[in-house]
Write a structure and sequence with these properties.
3-stranded antiparallel sheet, elongated, 9-stranded antiparallel sheet, alpha+beta
């Protein structure tokens, strides 16, 4: 007799597929995978080699979080077409989960980099850094807009772009460089939201790639104009021309209790 026609005990069959015997017993009880043979005298369950692909399909679907009722329905109407449809649906779900996990990883890397910066930074230093182009969601604001209205605008945008958690994104504010050069250091015109998994789309703000001036300011917000004056003087001394917007972002909100310890990162694109 061919090996493929021999029957396996429930223990052998379970071990071959890396599962518990109780799982097979449960599948039998709910009619999902009955044994190939049940001994009439002792009730022992036996399985055939040809049931292995069926079990592996069930285990794969369970790993993809397909519900038992869905699998039962599939098993009753098993075909290449129905399996293709089910797998395509679950692959789409899996792709969404992978995208989310990649976004979470990017967020964690950003937080780790911020903590590294906090531990090693010289707050008085102004440096040049290279940044890649990125797409930002922005909302227009003005001096007349209330904090509550800003929160509402942010909430609307996060819902529009299906942001699941606030920690999945980075937030900040923008000031036109032209305002800074004219001595207007509080002309905050936009709030920005950076979502790591957001693809470039029409209507989003493109933060240009290239060379940026990076500086930090800690504490009293009334002193930030002085910091901007230092940044502009640094650029002038090195024959660098700031352009576009200044991008401000807090980097230590999750490790402080007092606003006096708040550190804002300032980044301004420059060209020679």
């Amino acid at each position: 007799m061919s090996e493929k026609h021999k029957l396996l005990t429930i223990g052998q069959f379970a071990a071959m597929h890396g599962i518990n015997k109780k799982t097979l017993m449960w599948y039998d009880e709910i009619g999902l995978l009955p044994p190939a043979f049940i001994h009439p005298e002792n009730g022992y369950r036996f399985y055939s080699y040809h049931q292995s692909p069926i079990l592996e399909t069930i285990l794969l679907l369970r790993e993809l979080d397909v519900s038992i009722p869905e699998i039962q329905n599939f098993m009753k109407n098993r075909s290449a077409e129905s399996l293709k449809y089910l797998l395509e649906e679950k692959l789409a779900d899996l792709d969404r989960k992978i995208a989310h996990l990649q976004a979470v990883r990017t967020t964690l890397c950003t937080h780790r980099q911020n903590m590294t910066t906090l531990l090693t930074m010289d707050l008085s230093e102004i440096s040049l850094v290279e940044k890649e182009e990125r797409s930002l969601i922005t909302v227009d604001i003005s001096r007349d807009i209330s904090f509550e209205e800003e929160v509402e605008l942010i909430t609307t945008q996060t819902e529009k772009h299906h942001l699941g958690r606030l920690h999945d994104a980075s937030y900040g504010s923008m000031i036109p460089v032209s305002s800074l050069q004219n001595g207007v250091f509080d002309d905050y015109c936009r709030l920005f939201i950076e979502i790591p998994f957001l693809k470039k789309k029409t209507g989003l703000h493109t933060q240009p790639g290239g060379t940026y001036l990076r500086a930090f300011h800690k504490g009293d917000w009334e002193l930030i104009p002085k910091r901007y004056q230092e940044i502009l003087a640094y650029a002038n001394q090195r024959h660098l021309t700031p352009y576009g917007y200044s991008y401000e972002m807090g980097i230590n909100e999750n490790v402080i209790d007092r606003m006096g310890d708040y550190i804002v990162q300032i980044e301004i694109p420059v060209c020679k």
